[in-house]
Amino acid sequence: MRANTQPIDGPTPDPVLLSELLGRDVCDGMGRSVGRLRDLCVPFTGLREPAPVTGLVVTRHHGAALIVPSSAVLSWHAHRLALDTAASATAPPRTSAEIWLHRDVLDTQVLDVVGRRIARVSDVLLLRRSMTLEAIGVDVGFAGVLRRLGLARLTAHARHDTVAWADLHPTSDRGHAIALSTPRAAVHRLDADGLAELIGRLDVSAAAEVVAGYPAAVAASAVRVNPDTGERVLRALPDRDVERIVTAMPSVHAAQWRARLQRTPRLLGRHLLRSRVWPRRRVRRQR
């Protein structure tokens, strides 16, 4: 999938770039300027399909930010969009599984579950369908960085690299929390080897939250792949989760891990000091 920078108004099916939409002028139905587009909201369902944009955040010239549903879009133009401003709300949804593409995804790190890597998002790719937009993936290549720096002429020789929306796990605070609470999210589809690689790349707090939501047998296999990382993660979990995971190991290994966890841990270099294992934190269980 290669990002194309043609304007959203054209008939092309190529992806629209979030960075090119942000800052676009916003007017009301009478053509009066209201402010500028600041963010787009999408639900994080974990389904293997594009995520529809459900809300827009507009920074107004005067007053608080305006938040409107995507159904309020009246038209898209080359450099602006028209909204039915009467459809505004006073705050973004706080209880639903929705994330904001600028705040929670753009310029943050995401996990590519299929490629088993951590990458930084340089842009978000969307498709326009009539008056609606859908998030289809993210650009994690250096070409996106060059384009946003105004060096588009250099992108022909830079690497284009994308991750499909259904295959990513956001690591921003809100994105990570919502993905963990979404049963169909990509982060819940890893096998033991993939889980082991993931927890080796996340900080201990985030890794413990992920491991706590996995079946005991998968978690047990994952923590045994890298004993040092596995120990840090287990020490960050509540006792009930530790016992559940250790019990799922073969009896010989379970006895070894119980003995290992009963010992006072050694500070294994600066990495452990940065891991913030101490004090043991309470990890929210996934249901």
Describe this structure in words.
The protein is α+β, with helices and mostly antiparallel strands. It has a domain at 16-165: PRC-barrel domain (SH3 type barrels), CATH 2.30.30.240. 30% of the residues lie in helices and 24% in strands. The strands form three sheets. Strands 2, 3, 5, 6, 7, 8 and 9 form a seven-stranded mixed beta sheet that branches. Strands 1, 4, 12, 13 and 14 form a five-stranded antiparallel beta sheet that branches. Residues 1-12, 89-95 and 269-287 have low confidence and may be disordered.
Care to count the β-strands?
15
- Give the count of helical stretches: 11
Tell me the CATH superfamily of the domain at 16-165: PRC-barrel domain
Helix fraction?
Answer: 25-40%
Helix/strand/pairing category: alpha+beta
* CATH architectural designation of the domain at 16-165: Roll
Q: Report the major sheet.
A: 7 strands, mixed
Q: From N to C, what is the helix and strand string?
A: EHEEEEEEEEHEEEEHEEHHHHHHHH
Mean of all residue-level pLDDT scores: 80
Radius of gyration: 22 Å
**Portion in beta strands:** 15-25%
Task: List segments where confidence is low: pLDDT < 50 over at least 5 consecutive residues.
Answer: 1-12, 89-95, 269-287
Q: What gap, in angstroms, lies between the N and C termini? A: 35 Å
What's the CATH topology label of the domain at 16-165?
A: SH3 type barrels
Class of the domain at 16-165 in CATH? Mainly Beta
| Large-scale geometry | elongated
